[in-house]
Amino acid sequence: MSKVLIVGGGAAGMLAAIVAAKNGHEVQVFEKNEKLGKKLYITGKGRCNITNACDMDTLFANVVGNPKFLYSAFYGFHNYDMMNFLTELGLRIKTERGGRVFPESDKASDVIFTLQRKMQHLGVKIHLHTQVEEVLVEKGHCSGIRLSNRQVVKADAVFIATGGISYPSTGSTGDGYQFAKKMGHTVTKLKPGLVPFIVKEAWVEKLQGISLKNIRVTIYSGKKSIYSEFGEMLFTHFGVSGPVILSASSLVSEEMEKGELKLSIDLKPALDKKQLEARILREFEVNQKKQIKNVMDTLLPRKMVPIVLDYMEISFEKKVNEITKTERIKIVETLKDFQFTLIGYRGFSEAIITRGGVAVSEITPASMESKLVKGIYFIGEVLDLDALTGGFNLQIAWSTAYAAANAIQ
């Protein structure tokens, strides 16, 4: 039996505590917040997107940063293992569109309570409001931790499960990176991941709050398409957000650093231009004497109509039978290619995850143990691993935690 200390009581920390305790180790969790799983409360808009019910190829395809490193961890404890794990603990789960897995209750708190209850049942000691100041190392081996009150807690193994620096209000303030650097580890460049874009056009503010479903977004660097995806998005007072936009932010970051990008929204992806023009002609035929603003809402959300007409420089009051062929073509072109200029990202306070972290070249993939210091394990978001939206980032946390907890002798 080993003495295991876990720094951080988030997703990775809680799962690691359960698995290590099940294996007979003496486990203590140190969490600086007032409760466990604070960031989990806000994942999936408060519903907690636990994982994704996809096949292994899709699981790997959705990992953006260092997918090969996760080979052992994912095959050792994959998405269906996690679903079974929670089901066996009494949590009822469901799968929604895109393979997203949620608690049946739609409450993230139920996931946290399920894990916390199991930790307590296994005798895991949980220390809340407890700040870890330093991870102690003697002769290349971890020896324990020092708390902010100067108390030293001895250990055979220390798990660093401190998360990244996204949503700092949840306690993710980069402590783990400082611990890692002090031990000689490399921390790669940190960037906001799964984050909204800022748009150049000031009038985007007029679209604030409008949500679009079943659209296709394409992002161009010059004339080259660098991202294209079908799904949902949202306009904000500063630009664009929503699932397809957040995923794009992680995939086009290198191009974004070089300069402005062009966002094209296809508002009618199910129709090609000829089919769309035929549909518009049918609408116009039936509504010849109506004003264009009262017909366009059959094609667009009502709140969007005046802004799009303004974008096309077509008068709101114009009657349908006064619309010229040139204007009709312009409507088709705009509905298939509504354009914005992307000029940057929002900051870490709005990023779902942190991209970058402890260099995985310095971590043993099968165990998550440091190659530099024996008995130190890095798990979850603190590592240089990241994925797209849909439950994939949480699966990284679960799988890396499981691998580490099972590696302790």
Structure description:
It contains 13 helices and 21 strands. The protein is of the alpha+beta class. α1 links the parallel β1 and β2. α1 packs parallel to α13 and α9 crosses α12. The mean pLDDT is 95.
Architecture blueprint of SSEs:
Blueprint: E1 3-7, H1 11-22, E2 26-30, E3 51-52, H2 56-61, E4 63-65, H3 71-76, H4 79-88, E5 93-95, E6 100-103, H5 108-121, E7 125-127, E8 132-138, E9 141-147, E10 152-154, E11 157-160, H6 175-182, E12 191-193, E13 197-199, E14 211-221, E15 224-235, E16 239-241, H7 243-251, H8 253-258, E17 261-266, H9 273-286, H10 292-295, H11 305-312, H12 325-336, E18 338-345, E19 353-355, E20 376-378, E21 386-387, H13 392-407
Helix pairs in contact: 1-5, 1-13, 9-12
What labels would you give this structure?
409 residues, alpha+beta, 21 strands
